[in-house]
Design a protein that fits this description.
The chain contains 8 helices and no strands. The chain has 211 residues and is mainly α. It is globular.
């Protein structure tokens, strides 16, 4: 149960950081710190895309991975409700694809950038050859900063279904705002999940001794 509590707490604060700032530097710094906080208990995923990749490496059983994802989604839901409680009838998050371009572009950005994020997580934290290193959180946090600045103008820069999909769902449920209809929500599921699967399978192929 402690693992799921940590995943809930970490995703809650990560989601609030997206909500309050929308700043990739702040998001990367908070994410890195949360990873160090939670790594000894749950592994510090705070992202369903990470949990999927770790499950594919057989580091989690299916039921456990499902509980991780549920805890992460619940953290994002509560963060959305908390933000709404503070600010009232306003949009929850800045995340939104650029509607002036083909919808496939933000989808590709979410998928491609999640791919490199998950690959970095697997190589710096999961791989046996780097077990016990102390730089993994910093490496992941810095990458999130860079990817956030690179992708924010196109997709919003989520790379995480919990902080990308759930806020749109909550805005629709609460009737807050029509600026980002549910028709765009699938981008923040399909892109990160596809990128996660590709990264996990490539990691298994390259480092066969890891599985």
């Amino acid at each position: 149960m402690n693992k799921y509590i940590i995943e809930f707490i970490g995703t809650f604060f990560l989601t609030l950081t997206y909500a309050f700032t929308g700043n990739p530097l702040a998001i990367g710094a908070v994410f890195a710190s949360l990873i160090y906080m939670g790594s000894g208990v749950s592994g510090g995923h705070f992202n369903p895309a990470t949990t999927i990749a770790v499950w594919i490496q057989k580091k989690l059983i299916f039921r456990e991975a499902g509980s991780y994802v549920l805890a992460q989604f619940c953290g994002a839901v509560v963060a959305s409700l908390f933000y709404h409680l503070l600010y009232g009838n306003t949009r929850v998050f800045f995340l939104s694809p650029d509607r002036s371009i083909n919808i496939l572009k933000p989808l590709c950005i979410e998928g491609l950038f999640t791919f490199v994020l998950i690959l970095t997580i697997l190589y710096t934290f999961v791989a046996k050859k780097v077990a016990g290193n102390q730089y993994y959180g910093l490496a992941i946090g810095l990458l999130v900063v860079g990817l956030g600045y690179a992708g924010a103008n196109i997709s919003g820069g989520a790379f995480n279904p919990a902080v990308g999909f759930i806020p749109i769902l909550m805005e629709t449920f609460l009737g807050i705002c029509q600026c980002r209809p549910m028709s765009f929500a699938w981008i923040y599921l399909a892109g990160p999940v596809t990128g996660s699967l590709a990264a996990a399978l490539l990691f298994r192929f390259i480092l066969k001794e890891e599985v």
